[in-house]
Structures are given as C-alpha cells and as structure tokens.
Design a protein that fits this description.
Elements (H helix, E strand, L loop, with lengths): L3 E5 L4 H6 L6 H21 L8 H13 L3 E6 L11 E8 L4 E7 L18 E3 L5 E3 L6 H17 L6 E8 L6 H8 L2 H5 L4 E5 L33 E2 L9 H18 L22 E2 L2
Parallel strand pairs: 1-8, 4-7, 4-8
Antiparallel strand pairs: 2-3, 3-7, 5-6, 9-10
Length: about 290
C-alpha cells in the first residue's frame, strides 16, 4: 500500500479523531496537561545537539514504556562510523488494522536563549567541530516531544475505540538531517513493519493557537546542506596583490549563490539559498590560505 505522510500540529491531534463524547480530547488534555508541561519545560531546559540526544531519548523511552509501548532504544545507524544513534521506537499493538507511524524529533539548535523564561536553557557545550556553542530548543522539538507523549497516553486510554498498530518514532538528528536516514539504514521498516500512514508532528508559527493544520504530502521545505572550503594563497594584508584572497572570493561566491533562486529557477517554484555560517582567517592583517 502506498504510504501517505501528513503533518500534525497539535498535542492531541490523533485524539480529536478517536475520542467519543464520554472521553473528549478536552478532558484528556486537562488530565494530562500538567505532566506534559513539566516534560516540556524539562526538555526545554536541557536541550541536546543533533546526534547527542542521550538524555532526551531516555525521557522519550521512559514515557513510551509508561504508555504501554514495547520500546527499543539506541536504534539506528549513521553513515559516520562509531557515532551512536539515539533513535527510540515504541510499538503499541491493538489487534488487527492499519499500521500508523507517529514521529517526533528530539534535537536542539546551537542558539543562545534570550527569552528570560524561568526554564530557559543555559546549556553550553562543544559541537562536533570543537566549537563552544550555546544550545536551545528554538524549533519547537520540546513541544513536539510533549505532544508525542500526550498522543501515546491518549491512545492507550482509548484502546477500546481503535484497532491496529502504532509505531512511535523518536527521531534524532533532525536538524542535522542524518537522523531519518540513520533510522532507515538501521532497518526501521524491516524490523517494525512498513506503515500505511506516517504522521509527522511539527508546530507552525503562522497558525494561531488552537488551530490544527493537516496536509497530504509535503508541508515544509526539504533542506540540503553543503560545506564549502575556499582555498587561496595567503600573505600579508598590506600586499594583497601577492596573494589569492579566499575571503574576498568567498564573499563573491555568497553573493552569486543568491542568483540561483532569482535567475536559475522558475520564480513560481519555492527555493531559498541561505549561507548560515562563514569562517576565515586568524588575524585582521593576515590574508589566510
């Protein structure tokens, strides 16, 4: 059967379709909200970078077990050797029926938090390049995790109202892009079955609170990342004519890349080219190699 993918934007989206008048989404939300808010705040306070979601994955695994799932931890296989994958898979079986995959991402971003919230992140760590960085859940993955756990709890409460199998997936390294590939490479579908439907949680800034957006197929842009090294011939900053300046060349390249979207593609097609980080040189008056 062809797999369809959707984007689900609510703590209890699945419950909305499954609940009856006797047990409504609101009553379940009211009962679970204090606990889910505590999980959200805890995860927000303790963010972890892509590929390092050890603590976060342990929370997800613990909560899925408590919701009645058969849980597998440390699942997945990265292309990079010797890099541990913190994927979490929870399976909730409830008789015959369709198999539905429900996913949350778990990683955070190298961003300094300046919200002033009492549960704000103060985490500082080194990234995979050895640079000191601040870490923050700036993309909503903390909220996704709380929604994900709330969905598992709700489906457990409502098992008399649905049949089938739910595969809960805690995906690592979503921001770094390699997490989904690692889960597939580790044999996600071979081991746990290929779902008939896949539901992907994500918040959306342009939807007001309380509104749920659902779409079949893609709802957000795909991201491809590249690292470019520009090499030149270094020298003294006072003798640029005797060098091949990679910093100037990099600046020209950055400007030219912006024409990929404006001049090389159909303007109707959505495409964005962003340079998010640039590094070069060691001192003001030295042209680097």
């Amino acid at each position: 059967m062809k797999i369809r993918s959707f984007s689900i934007l609510s703590v209890l989206t699945l419950v909305s379709a499954l609940a009856t008048a006797q047990q409504t989404p609101q009553s379940l939300a009211d009962a679970e909200l204090p606990s889910l808010l505590a999980i959200y705040k805890d995860v927000h306070t303790h963010p972890e970078l892509s590929g390092h979601e050890e603590r976060t994955a342990a929370i997800v695994a613990k909560e899925l077990r408590a919701a009645g799932c058969d849980v597998t931890e440390n699942f997945g296989k990265y292309d990079k050797p010797n890099l541990k994958c913190y994927g979490v898979i929870g399976v909730m079986k409830n008789g015959e029926g369709a198999t539905v995959l429900v996913r949350t991402d778990m990683d955070a971003l190298p961003v300094k938090e300046e919200t002033g919230l009492p549960y704000a992140s103060k985490v500082n760590t080194k990234n995979d390049s050895g640079q000191e960085v601040c870490v923050m859940h700036a993309c909503g993955h903390d909220a996704h995790i709380a929604a994900f756990i709330g969905t598992a709890r709700a489906l457990q409460h409502l098992k008399d109202q649905w049949t089938g199998t739910i595969i809960f997936v805690g995906q690592p390294a979503e921001e770094a892009i390699g997490g989904a590939r690692a889960l597939l490479k580790g044999g996600l579908y071979d081991r746990f079955g290929k779902p008939n439907f896949a539901l992907g949680f994500h918040d959306k800034a342009d939807l007001e609170t309380g509104r749920i957006g659902v779409t079949e197929g893609y709802t957000s842009a795909n991201v491809d990342s590249v690292d470019v090294t520009v090499r030149g011939v270094g020298g003294h900053g006072g003798y640029p004519h005797k060098t091949k300046d990679p910093v100037v060349l990099a600046a020209e390249m950055i400007n030219m890349w912006q024409t990929i979207a404006s001049r090389e593609n159909n303007p109707i097609d959505p495409i964005v080219v962003t340079v998010g980080s640039i590094h070069g040189g060691t001192k003001h008056n030295i042209i680097p190699d």
